[in-house]
Write a structure and sequence with these properties.
6 strands; 18% strand; Rossmann fold; 203 residues
Length: 203
Amino acid sequence: MASQELCLIRHGETDWSLSGQHTGVSDISLTANGRLAAENLASQLVTKLFALVLTSPLQRARMTCELAGLGKRAEIDADLLEWNYGAYEGLTPREIRAQRPTWMIFRDGCPDGETPEQIGARVDRVIARARDACGHVAIFAHGHVLRVFAARWLGLPPGDGCHFMLDTATLSVLSTYHGAPAIKHWNAPLMPVEAPDESDEPD
């Protein structure tokens, strides 16, 4: 029997992902380029039979899911919301480091927002739900929460999400290797897009 696969889809680009602003709870729509990338995803998923499709409640993830052809089957899961950036919502990494030069979200979290441990707890609930599904799973969500997802899938601490760079409009696949959690594909582009020159990849 084939190993279960979890397809992690980071939503297409938004105006704030282009500008490098941290987009947590702000409910921003996709750009035209982001919508085109999501439509392109449909051809990559058409051959897969998913037992479960989950999406973040935020419209950039839900729209990506719908344009990819899985909207009618999707269940909204609030645990897939992007990191709550608190006081850093809407700021770029450069603006944040002007105040805190050594800041890194995966270690320090956000003032008035969430800690890495809180994100890890949310992700663990989604992983448990996915592992209970009898078949492949598609998950539509956001950059930082999906990076933590990869770390937790491998049994690593939430903060180790810092090691998994993730662009907008990408498909990643988690699976197992002889029973051990493994990454099959990571950060595969849905289509060529221009990305902002920001090292932290904010959502």
